Design the sequence.
């Protein structure tokens, strides 16, 4: 199993001070350009499985990848950013938000599918829908977060360990390439679980927008290939503000 850990492109929250941030921001114009460059680079990967967080910024990043290389995509309920989906930025101002529901998530991923189907039909004669979206049952129409309280640090550590177990039980014995489009803090938590014994993840510095880290399961253990690579981005599009 080969695993590509990808941080979403720049969101509106990444470009704002904390007091102006919203619960589920979209990508900025810079973020959309980052996502386009990321998508062009990912064309060469030939992924078997693409997994995304249910936040809007990850869905929009994922959609850019799908527009370049249509493929099935899975929305996992447990790969969201640390803390969950919430309004406010500190103390008593923080309240749980709903998050996107199933229909909205699907719309964000396949909103250009009609044009894609037409292009695919013209090019290949294939009448099938090029994008198949599957979602965890935990995601319903009322919103994937459902207004729960903000997640604590011990909870996110437990969740990261659980996601790693899920990845291993699903894919580790297969010869597959898996892409996981997620968030900076949760990506760092996953890296602690994957390679924390040999790498001090806390000293990595900012995980850049649109960056790719690569790990591989080989000989009964995870092997680190590279960290936080943005070689697919022009220098003017490299941004790294987290959260």
Sequence:
């Amino acid at each position: 199993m080969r695993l590509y850990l990808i941080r979403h492109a720049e969101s509106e929250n990444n470009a704002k001070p904390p007091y102006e941030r919203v619960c589920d921001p979209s990508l900025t114009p810079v973020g959309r350009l980052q996502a386009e460059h990321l998508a062009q680079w990912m064309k060469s990967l030939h992924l078997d499985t693409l997994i995304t967080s249910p936040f809007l910024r990850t869905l929009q990043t994922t959609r850019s990848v799908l527009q370049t290389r249509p493929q099935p995509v899975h929305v996992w309920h447990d790969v969201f950013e640390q803390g969950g989906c919430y309004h406010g930025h500190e103390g008593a101002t923080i309240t749980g938000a709903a998050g996107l529901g199933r229909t909205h998530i699907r719309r964000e991923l396949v909103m250009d599918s009609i044009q894609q189907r037409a292009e695919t039909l013209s090019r290949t004669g294939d009448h099938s829908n090029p994008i198949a979206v599957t979602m965890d049952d935990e995601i319903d129409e009322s919103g994937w977060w459902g207004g729960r309280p903000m997640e604590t640090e011990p909870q996110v550590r437990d969740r990261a360990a659980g996601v790693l177990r899920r990845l291993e039980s699903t894919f580790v014995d297969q010869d597959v390439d898996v892409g996981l489009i997620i968030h900076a803090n949760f990506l760092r938590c996953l890296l602690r679980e994957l390679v924390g014994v040999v790498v001090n993840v806390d000293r990595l510095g900012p995980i850049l927008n649109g960056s790719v880290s690569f790990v591989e399961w080989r000989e009964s253990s995870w092997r680190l290939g590279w960290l936080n690579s943005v070689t697919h981005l022009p220098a003017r599009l490299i941004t790294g503000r987290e959260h």
